[in-house]
Amino acid sequence: xxxxxxxxxxxxxxxxxxxxxxxxxxxxxxxxxxxxxxxxxxxxxxxxxxxxxxxxxxxxxxxxxxxxxxxxxxxxxxxxxxxxxxxxxxxxxxxxxxxxxxxxxxxxxxxxxxxxxxxxxxxxxxxxxxxxxxxxxxxxxxxxxxxxxxxxxxxxxxxxxxxxxxxxxxxxxxxxxxxxxxxxxxxxxxxxxxxxxxxxxxxxxxxxxxxxxxxxxxxxxxxxxxxxxxxxxxxxxx
Length: 238
Prior knowledge:
Elements: H1 7-13, H2 23-32, E1 41-48, E2 60-64, E3 75-78, H3 82-89, E4 94-96, H4 98-105, E5 113-116, H5 121-124, H6 128-131, H7 149-158, E6 160-164, E7 170-177, H8 182-198, E8 209-216, E9 222-223, H9 226-231, H10 234-237
Parallel strand pairs: 3-4, 3-5
Antiparallel strand pairs: 1-7, 1-8, 2-6, 8-9
GO biological process, one term: regulation of translation
Family: Belongs to the universal ribosomal protein uL1 family.
GO molecular function: rRNA binding; structural constituent of ribosome; tRNA binding
């Protein structure tokens, strides 16, 4: 059964042409098409030429968005001894040891990022089924297993994001809020593009970037000219 398109979305779809847009033009249009009754996010959907079922074609990493995410990020830390107090002093919203693991096991999920010290990982392993599907399981690749808690907490609160390619080789990332200035969205999108290029899996074959679309949470997809984004210099965006 065909999904009914709302009048609002139908009107927005008419604004978007079927062609790749220059990056700034695309982001200006994204802002124009964010007409929902709540503050929408700016989303990037990137199809890469990878097959993540092979270990040398997987992409999982972090990016620091220079202009932030526009969201309040709640950080939880699992550590032991003095490290618990260190995490609290560094601005963690939640910090604890075995008792925090028990709370999570009982269903407490009042956080957006979970950071752990390496010595606690064997105990956290039992939370894999709960945290894994939500993308919250701490990992060294994601920068969420570390002994340097103050730096990790500060970075995630300032706009550091962990992301990965899904089973189809598509990366979905919220790279700011639709209410941001298009120039600031461009700076964040450029940082994301450079991060994906920098972390290109060794087994990736052929054309790496296939398509890049951006949209507001409830808005239409807008194709971005990948070559134009790659050619953009951050100094120009700033």
